[in-house]
């Protein structure tokens, strides 16, 4: 039986008087890649935000590894081994690659830190080459590698990725998705929010389609790729 890692049960959220999510329910099982696709403004980033405590869910429950975390402070959620790679990367521009990674591994002991750092450099050799370079002088693709590497330094059990392909060249996008696939092979549980529906669904075990803050469709990644409505709306026909 598959172990459920993350559950949203009829979760709603608001920005002031505007309702952004409408009773969203979904699950992510241990070792899966689950993707959430939808147009701009559908509520994808808001959904990730409710998981991290910003904005707060105004209805429903969110559970991680069997614990209800709906009202937990963001820092406590992150200490439960949840890590997020935010939209737009948000690396510390004035810090070097090594300093950015150190921020991600802040709560690790020396041995854990060194092991995680070696692993990140194996995943992204470019970061090793540029370890003393300031993040703000790196390309968008290199910054995305750094953002993922920084998240992995905390040794997460659940990795949240918010639009990792945004603004990147096709060859870099493929490299990023190859790395996501490698993480899954190594047992990482991944919740992927992505506008590039074709790439995301090819990679995903399962997927959800979000429209106007509501889940309107869920299925395997393969089935969603073949779905005519999904192809028309998100895959260019």
TrEMBL record:
Which terms under GO biological process does the entry name?
amino acid transmembrane transport; L-amino acid transport; neutral amino acid transport; organic cation transport
Kindly list the GO molecular function terms attached to this UniProt entry: ATP binding; ATP hydrolysis activity; branched-chain amino acid transmembrane transporter activity
Q: Which Pfam families match?
A: ABC_tran
Q: Please name the SMART domains in this protein's record.
A: AAA (SM00382)
Domain ABC transporter per the UniProt entry, residue ranges: 6-237
Q: Which InterPro entries match?
A: AAA+_ATPase, ABC_branched_ATPase_LivF/BraG, ABC_transporter-like_ATP-bd, ABC_transporter-like_CS, BCAA_Transport_ATP-bd_LivF, P-loop_NTPase
What are the protein's UniProt keywords? Amino-acid transport, ATP-binding, Nucleotide-binding, Transport
The entry assigns this protein to a family as follows: Belongs to the ABC transporter superfamily.
Query: This protein is called what?
Result: High-affinity branched-chain amino acid transport ATP-binding protein
The primary gene name is livF
């Amino acid at each position: 039986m598959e172990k459920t890692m993350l559950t949203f049960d009829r979760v709603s959220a608001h920005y002031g008087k505007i309702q952004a999510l409408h009773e969203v329910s979904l699950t992510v099982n241990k070792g899966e890649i689950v993707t959430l696709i939808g147009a701009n403004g559908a509520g994808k980033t808001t959904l990730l935000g409710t998981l991290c405590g910003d904005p707060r869910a105004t209805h429903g429950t969110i559970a991680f590894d069997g614990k209800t975390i709906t009202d937990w402070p963001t820092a406590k959620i992150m200490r439960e081994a949840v890590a997020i790679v935010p939209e737009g990367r948000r690396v510390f521009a004035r810090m070097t690659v090594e300093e950015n990674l150190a921020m991600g591994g802040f709560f690790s002991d020396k041995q854990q830190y060194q092991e995680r750092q070696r692993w990140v450099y194996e995943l992204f050799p470019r970061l090793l080459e540029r370890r003393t370079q300031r993040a703000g002088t790196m390309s968008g693709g290199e910054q995305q590698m750094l953002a993922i590497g920084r998240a992995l330094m905390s040794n997460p059990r659940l990795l949240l990725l918010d639009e990792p392909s945004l603004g990147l060249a096709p060859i870099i996008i493929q490299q990023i998705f190859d790395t996501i696939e490698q993480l899954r092979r190594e047992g990482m549980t991944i919740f992927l929010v992505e506008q590039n529906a074709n790439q995301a669904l090819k990679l995903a075990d399962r997927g959800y389609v979000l429209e106007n803050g509501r889940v309107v469709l869920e299925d395997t990644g393969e089935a969603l790729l073949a779905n005519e409505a999904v192809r028309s709306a998100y895959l260019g026909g």
